[in-house]
Amino acid sequence: MTLAAFLSTDASIIHVRLTRVRGSSPRDAGAQMFVSADGLHGTIGGGQLEYMAIDKARAMLRTGCATDDMDVPLGPEIGQCCGGRVAITLVQMSGADRREASRAEADDIGQRPHVYIFGAGHVGRALARFFQFLPVQCVLIDGRHEELSLSDAKVETRLSALPEADIRNAPPNSAFIVLTHDHALDFLLTSEALDRRDAAYVGLIGSATKRVKFSRFHASQSAGSVTSGLTCPIGSTQSTDKRPEVIAAFVVAEVMTRLTKAATSPTQQQNQTPKRSLQKGGAEQYQWEETRNV
User: Fold this and answer.
1) Nearest residue to 92 (alpha-carbon basis) of 36, 38, 39, 49
2) In this structure, are 94 and 225 located in the same domain?
3) How many Å apart are CA 88 and CA 132, to the nearest integer?
4) Is the pTM of this model over 0.90?
5) Please, are residues 116 and 81 in contact by the beta-carbon 8 Å criterion?
6) Which of 13, 20, 130, 178 is the most exposed place for a label (fewest CB within 10 A)?
7) Which residue numbers delimit the XdhC- CoxI domain (predicted)?
8) CA distance 44 to 37
9) Do 71 and 20 sit in the same domain of this protein?
């Protein structure tokens, strides 16, 4: 359920927000959740801290209290060992508060980084299933309708005869994961993504040998463009498990690491639109490649 849907009910709702964090804490200042008598949206970090905040919020709902504060040490006395201390504000939401929170959510969704998956084969579909739960805008792209139709992930699917155009039209700091059924197409798309020079992540499925072959191709096609920004193999770990879901899990971790680093870089922070917030009042490693015949 989206926050807007949660807030659209007639039930009274308390907005719970971490306003100050000192030392170690499960979440940073600004983390928030919304509590009704029988529902919850968001999290301030879980554990005993969150249980205490939920209890306080529901007590406010029962008594009609409009605002309250909490100051909680995250120590053994509450069953947590973070060692920090957090300040929390709790505010009963007005209609205007709800509208502002819904707008803030829409702003946040619009600013989420884009992840483009080229190839809706086994690994591509597994990636989409993971990314549907993460704060990204994921697009699964293929020229084969029958493969796209097999995806059950709640992400955008795009039937594209010119996937290189999707790369050219993508916003800056996007992630591009290339794993089509055709090596020539893989090389074309990967070159296109590298030539942008502003991608947060460019990944090509394959082996160390495939990387060498691609590097030769790219040098012959793109004067001045380098492959230092390329990740190939993707999801590289010590694991030798080549099942699509396992590869996808490692790749998702790799991509999210790059995206979160890009989001906190000084350049990216300068380019971001301020968000609304409610205040009180070398060995060869071979990977799975798509060879399914259709």
Assistant:
1) 36
2) no
3) 30
4) no
5) no
6) 20
7) 13-64
8) 18
9) yes
